[in-house]
Amino acid sequence: MRILGIESSCDECAAAVVEEGRQILSNVVFSQRRFHAPFYGVVPEIASRKHIETIYPVVERAMQEASCSFDDIEALAVTCRPGLIGSLLVGLSFTKGLALALEKPFVGVDHVVAHLYAAHLEQDIEYPYIGLLVSGGHTLIARVLDFNRMDVLGTTIDDACGEAFDKVAKHYDLGYPGGAAIDRLAGSGDPRAFSFPVPSLHKGDHPFDVSYSGLKTAVVNQLEQFRIPGYPKSKENIAASFQKTAIDLLVDRLRKAIGHTGLNQVVVGGGVAANSYLRKCLQGEEFRVIFPSLKLCADNAAMIAGLGYHLLRTGQRSELGLNAQARVSGFRKTYP
Ligand code: KG4
Ligand code: ZN
Questions:
Q1: CB 276 within 8 A of CB 297
Q2: Which pTM was predicted?
Q3: How many Å apart are CA 117 and CA 238, to the nearest integer?
């Protein structure tokens, strides 16, 4: 089954053609980064306008690169939640129109679940496993039971992990988007130069939850010191110390989740899965850790088409009345 996937939940307009949920025939991503960079963050109104301008050329290119015509597509899959509502609506409306014109079925896909599917496009992975989803909008640790079923063990109680990277980078003018910039700078910094507080979250009540807003504030509070002329601590040291604290927290929660569930396999997904320190920390663990390749960590439509394939294969179809949702819904938080 050949599926055309469409993704427009944030600042990437993407389309991909994927066969049997696995073989990527094309994977086109148009990043709007340069339009948002002057604002150090995604501006929703700019994002939806850019999606409108680029969605058709992006889909056309995905079809060309896959060397297929719309006749060769059996169905469509599209991100319908969570994300920026205006951006989601562009992809969803476009997909509905195309599905109607082609008289082909379509299915709405959850972006967060799709991030965890990304690694399945490249490797054979058996369920169940512990999923670690770390992106600009979400941070969660879950027991993943199937392609579309998970029990959420822990989440962030405030900022998402990637969001904290982006906010720290903004305050220190380290570049946009912040995650990759901090990762790069941290490579030549001393992670022990600053000591930042690690959130403890009411000691034991929420063993798998994380929190980033206190850490972010602590890092930003160093800014005055940082500006003192001749102050020896560099941007590299701030980046390395922040990154170590932020990622060590995730790794701690992950180890606890492994201990609690007895599962011995972890699948990571989302933009922060590209982080080199996270990848290094999880090397040589006793459990198996699977990361998607860098291209599939960030937002893309191959993961949407891939997950869409499994939904369609099991009989799911969306109606034209399907609406976009800004927030995640339907995950059961099973712990505590
Ligand atoms: O999954 P994604 O592309 O979009 C969302 O669904 O949010 O994730 C984007 C996030 C941004 O916050 C970005 O700063 C972060 O992923 N990110 C990184 C790295 N590359 C991207 N964070 C840490 N280290 C990286 N190398
Ligand atoms: Zn994403």
A1: no
A2: 0.95
A3: 33
Candidate of 32, 33, 163, 165 to mutate for ligand 1, largest count of ligand atoms within 8 Å of Cβ: 165
Residue with tokens 């790794």: 251
* Protein residue closest via CA to atom 14 of ligand 1: 179
Question: What digits encode the pLDDT tens for the residues 62-89?
Answer: 999 999 999 999 999 999 999 999 999 9
By C-alpha distance, which of 10, 26, 309, 332 is closest to 151?
Answer: 332
Torsion angle in degrees (nearest 10) through CA of 270, 276, 277, 280: 100
**Distance between CA atoms of residues 185 and 243, nearest Å:** 10
The helices-and-strands tally (H runs, E runs) of the chain is: 12, 11
Q: What 8-state DSSP symbol labels residue 193?
A: S
- The strand pair at 288-290 and 2-7 is best described as unpaired
Instruction: State pLDDT tens for residues 118-168.
Output: 999 999 999 999 999 999 999 999 999 999 999 999 999 999 999 999 999
Residue 146 and residue 120 in contact, taking contact as beta carbons nearer than 8 Å: no
